[in-house]
């Protein structure tokens, strides 16, 4: 009976067909006692075989051997068996599997685990249970075993490993009572002393008490691998404070005192290292790029990487490229990840089969999600359930390690699990995929419509919510900040939905989503993604013959191209948009496109074309009674007038625009008009008013969380600060703007910040650094085709080169700058260059030639009421006369310059002239 009980324990602990065969062999031997010693010897000799190959745990085998040993002849006194201690002493069993070569550096996790154990031992505290969790195939068991070997010296009384078969294919989870019998036998408890009985609960409790007593004063390490639940493992926990328990599980097992350690996929570099090592090939023979793609396709899961490397090792004729080709070409990537009878799918399949049918369906639907991570709202749309139910399902799948949780109550499928879910879904109705994408796209349309209610400017056209939006549960967005945050979080998912919908020929959804996302992408970018979106939408609209939709997509494409300073492409897209709108007599769309064309021409200083387009747009808006459109066209026309040095016309147009924006409550338009009025007033020399307008604009942009326009306002503030003598405040403002533009990838704005910083460096005496910065800005302006920016850079570059003693270089810069400015009609800029050139000639000892330049500048400045350049010209004329005709001459011009400078608040220039007069 004792023998049969040992056999039964072995069968339960080991499981499997081969264990059954082993039990059968031993049972046959029972009838012939003369054969027992031979069978026993064979079993002891092949214990490793039964453990490694047959899947029989060492604990189960020990139980079997314990049953046999009770029938063997007693050991002669004084000659204990090898490995046995004195009579009555507990066995020291080391049953850890060998440390595998597949282990790849997890230094941070190991450091945390070892540090936790060391701290507890050094402080005399009880060791907490350490739960190592993670998704299938991520290497939990390998990590636990490696850590066990690393910590083995700290636990001299034994290191035990038990596979609880929580998710082992083909096996049922080991019950706690069965595992306890194996552990007690492994710890040296005679099998006849292990409690038995029909009451499973009572027997389990009795065995647990014996187990705790057995290890009460011991320092042992116990690895409970592949646990299905906390209920399964709780009775196995030792009672002594000196024992360490490592638990691995796919589920997050909740207890009161455990230390939870999640094991994630390997970093790509470590995954590559593992693949190379296990492939048996030299690294240089594999090709780094190919291996990187292979491990990426495996999701950097150690199991997947190991299985794939094994395929290459077992096929000497294959190259890494051959393997990559097989993997990429396979419809089901998981089907290629096999090594013998092992497959990655097997690790996923058991977890999936444990799910209730409704959760299985929900999991399959997740495989259709086009994006990366999702929340309960998107999950509800996919699974056709309520948000409450979707949240419960997601939390359950998270507990089962079939999805990962990310901050913000968001969830993500690992790449391999995503493919697995898609493979499952593909076995069903082929329309499921299309319908799932339609559902999630409809959800996003409804949710974006809610967000647009907070971010779209008052009076602007808002893309309508989709049909049936009232039946879609959308997130609660109570403010502009909420809307922007949600859109930022979901942007990648929405764009992925557009790509999937386009691939499924759901063209109407593509056009509608692109239009819905346009207001946000205008503000937030990234603009290269927006370009792709609107191109896709324009082509989708062409497929369906939707000219209005095509016009909308092309217009948005033009706007984004303008943001990217791709001006020729912007003009092409906007012209195509005008044509599309005209085909369907959409006057509102045509007006919008014309106004945007005007902005592009303004930026490229094609001022006459800009004014013509904006005037045409203004007329259409007035016909339509569109107040916001009127304000936009007036504001942009005001900017064009300002650039043409028509300051009075600029102030008039911009002031009318500002009044309409305030009437509409349009804070964004209000800020834009304030900023441009500030620029005009700066050019007119009313610096206090300019600074006030710029600060008001900046404050509104800050409220709107618009970093692009915050940066533009900072640059304008910096100019005013520099002109009024506060160079450090100017440097700070331009530096902040430069940081914003650099982070946003806005090249035009960045070049402008660099140019202004170059001027600050020149004013503060570092001509060399000024030249470097100005050349950098000049190169970018030329690359972008910005003639206005090029001219401004050349003007300042001429001054800096003159200060540095490069007279010829300075003259060359002034000449080229003047050519551009005269072509643009920028008379204020022309006056500025003439004044700079005059000062260069004056300091070079050519006062007569210098006076001619100052005279030209004075005529221009007075004609356009540009007070700063008027004062500079008067000062230059006075200094030239003083030099040419002797001291005392030119005093009238100098005093006139002082009067203008004082009105402007340019105190440094006033001080310089007064010192000369004294």
Automatic annotation (TrEMBL):
Question: Region (Disordered): which ranges?
Answer: 69-89
Which residue ranges run through the membrane?
7-27, 47-68
Q: Enumerate the UniProt keywords alphabetically.
A: Membrane, Transmembrane, Transmembrane helix
Q: Which InterPro entries match?
A: NB-ARC, P-loop_NTPase, TPR-like_helical_dom_sf, TPR_rpt, WH-like_DNA-bd_sf
Q: What is the designated name of this protein?
A: Cyclophane-containing RiPP biosynthesis TPR protein HaaT
Q: Gene3D superfamilies from the xrefs?
A: P-loop containing nucleotide triphosphate hydrolases, Tetratricopeptide repeat domain, Winged helix-like DNA-binding domain superfamily/Winged helix DNA-binding domain
Which superkingdom?
Answer: Bacteria
Domain NB-ARC residues, every copy: 123-277
């Amino acid at each position: 009976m004792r023998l049969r009980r040992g056999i039964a324990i072995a069968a339960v602990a080991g499981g499997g067909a081969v264990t059954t065969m082993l039990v059968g062999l031993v049972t046959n031997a029972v009838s012939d006692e003369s054969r027992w010693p031979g069978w026993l010897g064979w079993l002891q000799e092949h214990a490793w075989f039964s453990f490694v190959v047959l899947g029989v745990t060492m604990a189960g085998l020990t139980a079997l051997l314990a049953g046999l040993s009770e029938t063997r002849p007693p050991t002669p006194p004084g000659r204990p068996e090898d490995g046995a201690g004195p009579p009555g002493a507990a066995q020291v069993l080391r049953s850890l599997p060998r440390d595998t070569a597949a282990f790849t550096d997890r230094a941070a996790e190991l450091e945390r685990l070892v540090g936790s154990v060391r701290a507890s031992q050094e402080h005399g505290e009880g060791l907490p249970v350490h739960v190592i969790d993670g998704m299938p195939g991520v290497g939990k068991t390998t990590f636990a075993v490696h850590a066990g070997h690393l910590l083995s010296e700290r636990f001299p009384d034994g290191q035990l490993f038990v596979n609880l078969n929580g998710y082992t294919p083909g096996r049922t989870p080991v019950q706690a009572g069965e595992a306890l019998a194996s552990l007690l036998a492994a710890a040296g408890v005679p099998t006849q002393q292990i409690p038995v009985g029909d009451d499973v609960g009572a027997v389990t409790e009795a065995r647990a008490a014996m187990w705790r007593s057995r290890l009460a004063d011991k320092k042992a390490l116990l690895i409970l691998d592949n646990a299905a639940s906390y209920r399964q493992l709780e009775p196995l926990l030792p009672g002594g404070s000196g024992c360490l328990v490592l638990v691995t599980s796919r589920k997050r097992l909740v207890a009161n005192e455990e230390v939870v350690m999640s094991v994630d996929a390997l970093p790509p570099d470590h995954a590559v290292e593992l693949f190379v090592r296990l492939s048996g090939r030299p690294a240089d023979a594999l090709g780094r790029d190919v291996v990187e793609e292979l491990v990426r396709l495996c999701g950097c899961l150690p199991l997947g990487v190991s299985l794939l490397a094994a395929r290459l090792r077992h096929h000497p004729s294959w190259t890494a490229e051959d393997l990559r080709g097989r993997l990429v070409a396979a419809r089901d990537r998981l089907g290629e990840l096999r090594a013998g009878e092992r497959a990655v799918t097997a690790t996923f399949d058991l977890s999936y089969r444990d799910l209730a049918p409704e959760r299985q369906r929900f999991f399959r639907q997740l495989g259709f999600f086009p994006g990366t991570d999702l929340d309960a709202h998107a999950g509800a749309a996919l699974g056709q359930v309520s948000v409450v139910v979707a949240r419960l399902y997601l939390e359950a799948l998270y507990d089962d390690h079939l999805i990962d949780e990310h901050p913000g109550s968001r969830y993500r499928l690992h790449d391999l699990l995503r493919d697995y879910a898609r493979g499952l879904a593909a076995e069903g109705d082929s329309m499921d995929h299309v319908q799932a994408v339609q559902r999630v796209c409809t959800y996003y349309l409804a949710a974006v419509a809610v967000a647009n209610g907070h971010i779209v400017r008052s009076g602007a056209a808002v893309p309508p919510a989709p049909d049936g939006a009232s039946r879609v549960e959308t997130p609660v967005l109570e403010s502009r900040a909420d809307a922007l945050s949600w859109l930022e979080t979901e942007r990648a998912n929405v764009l992925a939905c557009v790509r999937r919908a386009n691939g499924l020929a759901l063209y109407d959804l593509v056009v509608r989503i692109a239009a819905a996302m346009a207001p946000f992408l205008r503000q937030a970018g990234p603009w290269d993604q927006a370009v792709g979106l609107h191109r896709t939408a324009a082509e989708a609209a062409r497929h369906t013959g939707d000219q209005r939709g095509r016009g909308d997509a092309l217009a948005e494409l033009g706007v984004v191209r303008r943001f990217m300073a791709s001006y020729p492409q912007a003009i092409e897209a906007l012209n195509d948009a005008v044509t599309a709108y005209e085909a369907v007599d959409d006057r509102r769309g045509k007006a919008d496109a014309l106004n945007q064309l005007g902005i592009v021409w303004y930026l490229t200083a094609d001022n006459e074309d800009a004014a013509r387009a904006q005037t045409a747009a203004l007329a259409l808006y007035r016909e339509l009674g569109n107040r916001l459109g009127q304000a936009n066209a007036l504001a942009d026309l005001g900017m064009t007038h300002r650039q043409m040095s028509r300051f009075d016309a600029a102030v008039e147009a911009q002031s009318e625009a500002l009044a309409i924006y305030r009437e509409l409550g349009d804070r964004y338009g209000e800020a834009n008009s304030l900023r441009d009025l500030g620029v005009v007033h700066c050019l007119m020399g009313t610096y206090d008013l300019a600074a006030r307008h710029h600060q008001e604009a900046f404050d509104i942009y800050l409220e709107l969380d618009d970093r692009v326009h915050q940066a533009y306002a900072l640059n304008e503030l910096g100019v005013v600060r520099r002109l009024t003598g506060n160079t450090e405040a100017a440097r700070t403002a331009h530096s902040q703007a430069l940081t914003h533009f650099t982070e946003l990838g806005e090249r035009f704005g960045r070049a402008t910040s660099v140019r202004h910083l170059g001027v600050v460096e020149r004013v503060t005496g570092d001509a060399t650094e000024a030249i470097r910065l100005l050349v950098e800005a000049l190169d970018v302006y030329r690359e972008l085709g910005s003639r206005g920016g090029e001219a401004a850079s050349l003007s300042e570059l001429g001054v800096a080169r003159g200060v540095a003693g490069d007279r010829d270089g300075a003259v060359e810069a002034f000449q080229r700058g003047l050519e551009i400015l005269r072509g643009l009609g920028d008379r204020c800029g022309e006056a500025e260059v003439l004044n700079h050139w005059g000062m260069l000639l004056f300091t070079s000892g050519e006062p007569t030639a210098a006076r001619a330049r100052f005279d030209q500048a004075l005529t221009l400045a007075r004609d356009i009421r540009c007070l700063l350049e008027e004062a500079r010209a008067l000062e230059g004329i006075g200094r030239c006369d003083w030099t040419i005709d002797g001291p005392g001459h030119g005093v009238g011009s100098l005093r006139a310059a002082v009067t203008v400078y004082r009105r402007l608040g340019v105190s440094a220039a006033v001080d310089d002239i007064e010192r000369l007069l004294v």
